[in-house]
Each structure stands twice: as C-alpha cells, then as structure tokens.
Amino acid sequence: MNAPSWFVHARRALERMLACSRVPEDPGHARDVERWLLRLSPNADWPVRYAALAHDVDRALPDDQRVRREDFLDFDDFKAAHAANSARVAARLLREAGAPVSVVCEVTHLVLHHETGGESAELALLCDADALSFYTHNLPFYLLREGENEAVRRIRWGARRLSGRARQILARFPFANPIIGQMVLKEI
Question: Which of 54, 87, 88, 184 suits a disulfide with 112, CB 3.0-4.6 Å?
Fold first, then answer.
C-alpha cells in the first residue's frame, strides 16, 4: 500500500530534523519505533506510523526550542512537557505537508500521550513500540551517556509503561550485550 503524500512529505521533513539531533540514537530510535509498531501491528494506519516516527522530535530541536530535563524537578513533568512540545512540532510538519485536519488531530493526541498511554488501541500500540525501542535500541547509548545508576532508574521508570505483551517480548529478546539484557530482565 502506497503512503499518502502527506506522510511522505512530513516524514522527509521530520527525518531532516532528526538527523540534526545531538542525541546519537534519535534518528535510529524513530525508525526503530516504527519497526516495532509494524511488528506488533503490521496493518497500523498512517497516522500511528507518523506518530511513531515523530514522538520524540522535541529532542532534535535547537536548545532554545526543546524541553530540557534540567528545567524540571519531576521526571514525569519533564516527560509531559517533552511530549507536548513534540506534538506541536509533529502537528506543524503535518500541516505544512497538507495532511487532513483529522490526521493532525490524531497524531497530536498520540504524540501528546505517548509517554503515558491511554484509552485507545493505537495509543497502547505506540507506547509499547516506544518502550520496546528504548530497551532494544536506546539503552546502550543511554547507559554509556548517563551511567549505570541512571540507566537502572530509567529502566524502572519505563517498566511501568510496559504491557504484558511487551514484557513477554523483552523477556525473550536476544540482547547483543548480555549485561544490558540482565539489567532489563532484573527490572521488568
């Protein structure tokens, strides 16, 4: 099935932004979340696929436009602000690409709640794909950058988001680094 033109154009703009991220895992994480999404739901619709790609675009913004962890005392407050900023950017890119208003609204809702989940099957799917990608793609980068104590704290925080299905997938996942695999299995 061919992607709608809005998806193609918005994806290109998004990929250009993500390529400028100071966080080395960001471009790969966006693609990895989309891969996990399609593994979990091969027929996922285009708005959910775009939300998977755009959910963390805030991290690729210049310093004066992105949400910074050090500006928040509470990690959950930081994550909510990050999601809101990512949703604003995703919506702007979609409008510029000519996406229908219904798509802009759906993607905005999905990205806004990608850290916390919610009532819809699409949102649960996005949360699982994002969480799985954190553990299987981002965690090695995170561990090197932040250290073991912070990585364990982030693993525990992320474990609250996991569905039963995602926990089962992680329990069987063949981590390339056995130390990371042990860290994840101990905390999930």
Answer: 87
Closest CA to 48 of 119, 115, 116, 129: 129
Structural domain for 83, as ranges: 5-187
Q: How many domains does the chain have?
A: 1
Taken in order 108, 109, 111, 113, the sign of the CA dihedral is positive
Q: What CATH number is attached to the domain comprising 180?
A: 1.10.3210.10
Distance CA 148, CA 48 (A): 33
Across the 188 residues of the chain, what is the mean pLDDT of every consecutive 10-residue run? 94 95 91 97 97 96 93 93 97 98 98 88 95 94 93 92 92 92 92
Burial 135-158 (b: 16+ CB within 10 A, else e): bbbbbbebbeeeeeeebbebbeeb
Per-residue confidence (pLDDT) for residue 154, from 0 to 100: 92
Q: Count Cβ atoms below 10 Å from residue 98 Cβ, excluding itself.
A: 12
Q: How far apart are CA 175 and CA 57, in angstroms?
A: 26
User: Measuring CA to CA, how many Å separate 101 from each of 6, 91, 107, 120, 144?
Assistant: 11, 10, 10, 19, 41
Q: 49-84: string of b/e by CB count within 10 Å (b at 16+)? A: bbbbbbbbbbbbbeeeebbeeeeeeeeeebbbbbbe
